[in-house]
Amino acid sequence: FIQNFPNLLQLNLPILLIGNINAAPGIVAAFVMSRTIINFVRQILQHFAFVLSQEISRAFARGENKRVRDLFVATNRLVCAITGATLGCLLALAQQFFVIWSSGTVDYNENLIMIFAFTTGLAAPATVSASLPFNSRKSDS
Predict the structure, then answer these.
(1) DSSP string covering 44-86
(2) CA 30, CA 105: separation in Å to the nearest integer?
(3) d(C-alpha 80, C-alpha 123), whole Å
(4) Do 129 and 69 meet the contact criterion of CB atoms below 8 Å apart?
(5) pLDDT value of position 84
(6) Do the Cβ atoms of 129 and 53 come closer than 8 Å?
(7) Pick from 80, 66, 75: which is nearest to 135 by CA?
(8) DSSP letter for each residue of 123-140
(9) Which residues contact 135 (CB under 8 A, 6 or more apart)?
(10) Which residue from 80, 83, 75 is spatially nearest to 55, judged by alpha carbons?
(11) Averaged in consecutive runs of 10 residues, what is the pLDDT profile of the chain (141 residues)?
């Protein structure tokens, strides 16, 4: 539950916020654009985590427990650093991106971007853990 909580928060908090406010015109478009931008960042992180978790799984299959621990810590640090860098760039450039992408027809909503960025940052440490089961299938034979 703890590992999935940030992901649940990311998926459901904005929907609850939009449902509890008087939806201004264009808020749905701003929501969709914000979510799309953040999902692009999350996809980058998931690709890094998935590839790096393959090496962790390989070490686990060989019984190299110290290497597994070292790789897990290093991989988590790297994914968190990539998260921070990409979210920092996103927060700096999001408003300009909105203007370019929508030709100025969709208003930039800083609150939506901040909520998505915050929850993506919270979920970053769990990204590697979530990708490990896809690579850890060992044969018992």
Answers:
(1) HHHHHHHHHHHHHHHHHHTT-HHHHHHHHHHHHHHHHHHHHHH
(2) 10
(3) 9
(4) no
(5) 93
(6) no
(7) 75
(8) HHHHHHHHHGGGT-----
(9) 50, 53, 54, 56, 57
(10) 75
(11) 70 70 71 86 88 88 92 92 93 90 85 89 86 66 37
